[in-house]
Specification:
Structural class: alpha+beta
CATH superfamily of one domain: Kinesin motor domain
Largest sheet: 10 strands, mixed
CATH architecture of one domain: 3-Layer(aba) Sandwich
Bound molecules: adenosine-5'-triphosphate
Number of strands: 23
Distance between the termini: 15 Å
Radius of gyration: 31 Å
Shape: globular
């Protein structure tokens, strides 16, 4: 082979032919056309630069690089040290404030309620008075009271330090407690313009995680406890396995003493947007109903769990911590609500579990030897997150209305119970004053340390930028993105295999034909993954768990309007994200969401740029991906893309009758064409008597219309944009592996698993930084490697036959 790695490339055709030594196969016109294709590809520019006189520059820049590297090492060490101090200070601060903190929020009056009937008064930031009779007022003390004018920001600022401690390895529980209609969902979820604790908390987690030097793996789960049953709100469900057949998940103890919920879906998330999409789906599936007290009353406890696994922090308390954010079902006096039948049973179940929760917190507060976790599913689930090593915030909600006086008394009674031991009135004034001073000092210290950390991070960033300019070898935003995708690919592949190995999932597991799996371009188009140019040496992930379906989401026939599910499902939600009024007096559970809804949620954000969201990983972090793999294997985590895919497949199965899809059948002799609309009128023709021979030539003939389109379209770019089109391949060489891998060959009918465009993009030559002369020789080698790959891609796609 005529390869000279160190030689400067003059032009692509020469290089191609000399590289591969296939001159005899490559006619000049062919090479030229390939050159045009490559020129047309984005970012693909072969920059030929002279390589003279670079020795001096090299030495100078090498010295600078060394200096920067030294500084970076020292700054990173400092950052680590200060982070430790900050964590310690924050923990002391929270300890002093109490590991179980109880806040009270009074909601504003509704328009139908009259201010004159108010019975709650706030005196200071920590106590409220309840007018129980004309001349009798009762005082209740809290860690903090939020009056009706308090904002969502005010509430969050008190909760935020606790959420931050989840990043330090503490398990955290944040509850919203209160009677029906008192504002629990408002506090936890908020409104689109006025976000609540859950979205703010998640945003904080992602922001903090991106700022700190530790790498985190976040997973999101959402479940509800309805009448004592645990239901996964993210498990794909169809109407066929509807409401009645939903099995309750079981709880078991993990090897490390932690609590595991068997088969609970945990989806890896990388951004707030991803969590939002999952949350929207989960909220739609929650059990809600219209009650006398609230037209969209939550009939269950809704639990959101974020698991945070730290990949590289040895100084962290625990590798994995959990943040629970829980919108409890409304406590209600069943006499007042006049509930009967199912409503009565639901009310009883909610009240019983709330009472069990009160018992547990009381036992923890009073340090009783026995904590009655086993008395309800709620407390069993939270067993490892409610205790001395964890942080708990109870947000108690009350209504200011006189008509709700009895409920308010009950709620305040519960609140008093859960914070019984720490009533400030029981503390001597001097102890109280000392504590106050200490708290202020610790608060200031935490702030200072956080600022210091920020400053060091800023310095590190600047140095890294300088380094990048000097060496040109640091990943750019794009290449970072590529790497993160690689990283995610690994996760996905592992998650898939992990899921496949799981007991429950094995039952329904079956490999999908390749053409049913999301292609890189479909992922790109629907916004699941817009980095099709990524080097993808691995096979695409196999969507786990679901039985084969005949089509991938994009080709599903979706009902033209939402009427069927609206009338059929009467979904009533407290979520403002997708609010539909309840039209039936039934408790609506997860299983009614139609394929329309799911589709809407999943594809609602076509144009959002994942570039903004995906965490950038450095080489070092990539090296850690093995750790991640292990973590994922351990925990049975599902990647978001796989999860979405499961949802889609499941929903497709529910509307199968609407689909008329033929799966192309591959036989030894002939391939029949399906009725899926395709630019190909005839996929292949039998190649006469050669059929049974080892080599079979199959001719693909594009339709006339298609050929016309193709003339106008920009050659290969056209293919990237189409889901079910066939690449402009005139001939395929199919060997006798047809028999063994039928599904592999099916992909030739539609969009192949990887188009030529993608393969070529994998081999793209990146434009080197103008300043990076020192790396030119290395670049040359790199380019040659890329070109070799490019050639292999052509061969794989049948463009060269040898
Ligand atoms: N602090 C507040 N500011 C403005 N509006 C509020 C506030 N708190 C509650 N609301 C409004 O009161 C109504 C009932 O609140 P929400 O649905 O949050 O109650 P809930 O306690 O979650 O009820 P349920 O237990 O039945 O689900 C909603 O319309 C909500 O917008």
């Amino acid at each position: 082979m005529d390869v000279q790695p160190a030689r400067t490339m003059r032009n692509l055709p020469d290089t191609l032919s000399s590289l591969m030594g296939f001159n005899k196969h490559l006619t000049p016109s062919w090479i030229e056309s390939v050159s045009h294709i490559i020129d047309g590809l984005p970012r693909m520019k072969v920059v030929v630069e002279k390589t003279e006189n670079i020795g001096d520059d090299n030495t100078e820049s090498e010295n600078k690089v060394e200096k920067i590297q030294d500084e970076l090492v020292s700054l990173n060490a400092q950052l680590k040290q200060i982070t430790l101090h900050r964590r310690e200070a924050l923990n002391n601060y929270l300890d002093l404030k109490g590991n179980i903190r109880v806040f009270c929020r009074i909601r504003p009056f509704h328009h139908e309620e009259t201010y004159s009937s108010r019975n709650l008064f706030t005196l200071d930031e920590s106590s409220i008075f309840l007018q129980v009779a004309e001349t009798k007022r009762k005082q209740y003390k809290f860690d903090k009271v939020f009056n009706p004018l308090s904002t969502q920001g005010d509430v969050f600022s008190e909760v935020e330090p606790v959420i931050k401690s989840a990043l330090d390895g503490y398990n955290v529980c944040i509850f919203a407690y209160g009677q029906t209609g008192s504002g629990k969902t408002y506090t936890m979820e908020g409104k689109p313009t006025n976000l609540g604790v859950i979205p703010r908390g998640i945003q904080t987690l992602f922001n903090r995680a991106s700022e700190c030097s530790n790498r985190f793996l976040f997973t999101f789960s959402m479940l509800e406890i309805y009448m004592g049953n645990i239901r996964d709100l993210l498990a794909p469900r169809s109407k066929s396995n509807g409401l009645k057949n939903v099995s309750s998940l079981s709880i078991k103890s993990g090897p490390d003493g932690g609590i595991e919920i068997e088969d609970l879906v945990a989806v890896t998330v990388n951004s707030f947007e991803e969590v939002k999409r999952l949350y929207e789906v989960g909220t739609r599936l929650r059990s809600t109903a219209s009650t006398m007290a609230n037209s969209t009353s939550s009939r269950s406890h809704c639990l959101i769990r974020i698991s945070l696994t730290c990949l590289n922090a040895t100084e962290r308390r625990k590798a994995t911590s959990k943040l629970w954010m829980i919108d409890l079902g409304g406590s209600e006096r069943l006499v007042k609500t006049k509930a009967t039948g199912k409503r009565l049973k639901e009310g009883k179940a909610i009240n019983l579990s709330l009472s069990a929760l009160g018992d547990v917190i009381d036992a923890l507060q009073t340090k009783k030897p026995h904590v009655p976790y086993r008395n309800s599913k709620l407390t069993q689930v939270l067993r490892d997150s409610l205790g001395c090593e964890s942080k708990t915030v109870m947000l108690v909600h009350v209504s200011p209305n006189e008509g709700d006086l009895c409920e308010t008394i009950c709620t305040l009674g519960f609140a008093t119970r859960v914070r019984s031991i720490r009533l400030e009135s029981e503390e001597p004034p001097e102890v109280k004053a000392r504590k106050e001073t200490l708290l202020i000092d610790l608060g200031l210290k935490v702030n200072d340390l956080e600022h210091e950390c920020e400053e060091i991070r800023r310095k590190i960033k600047n140095l890294e930028e300088s380094m990048e300019q000097l060496t040109g070898s640091q990943p750019t935003i794009d290449s970072n993105f590529d790497m993160s995708h690689l990283f995610m690919e690994e996760l996905k592949t592992d998650a898939s295999s992990n899921v496949r190995s799981s007991k429950n999932r094995r039952e329904v597991s079956s490999r999908l034909p390749r053409f049913m799996k999301p292609t890189a371009s479909s992922q790109h188009r629907i916004g699941l993954n817009n980095c099709i140019h990524v080097t993808n040496r691995k096979k695409p992930p196999v969507p786990p768990r679901r039985r084969p379906s005949s089509v991938y989401a994009e080709s599903v026939t979706i009902p033209g309007n939402a009427a069927p599910w609206q009338s059929e499902c009467s979904m009533s939600m407290t979520s403002d994200m997708n609010w539909t009024p309840s039209i039936r007096d039934g408790t609506e559970c997860s299983q009614d969401a139609s394929e329309y809804e799911i589709k809407q949620v999943i594809f609602s954000e076509h144009d959002k740029s994942l570039h903004d969201q995906v965490t950038c990983y450095t080489d070092y972090q990539l090296a850690e991906s093995r750790d991640v793999k292990n973590k994922i294997e351990e925990k049975g985590i599902v990647d978001i893309e796989n999860w979405l895919h499961q949802q889609i497949i499941e929903k497709i199965n529910t509307c199968r009758s609407k689909l008329e899809l033929d799966i192309p059948i591959v036989t030894e002799d002939v391939i029949y064409v399906s009725s899926i609309p395709s630019p190909i009128t005839m996929a292949c023709t039998k190649a006469g008597s050669q059929v049974k021979d080892k080599g079979i030539y199959l001719t693909l003939q594009p339709s006339t219309d298609y050929v016309e389109d193709m003339k106008q379209a920009k050659a290969l770019n056209q293919f990237a944009a189409q889901e079910f089109c066939t690449p402009p391949i005139k001939e395929f060489y199919i060997n006798n592996e047809v028999k063994g891998h039928k599904n592999e060959n099916l992909v030739y009918h539609g969009r192949p698993r990887k188009s030529l465009q993608e393969e070529l993009e994998d081999c793209m030559l990146e434009k080197p930084d103008k300043d990076s002369r020192s790396h030119r020789l290395q670049d040359e080698k790199h380019k040659i490697g890329k070109l070799t790959k490019f050639f292999q891609a052509l061969r794989q796609h049948g463009l060269v036959l040898f």
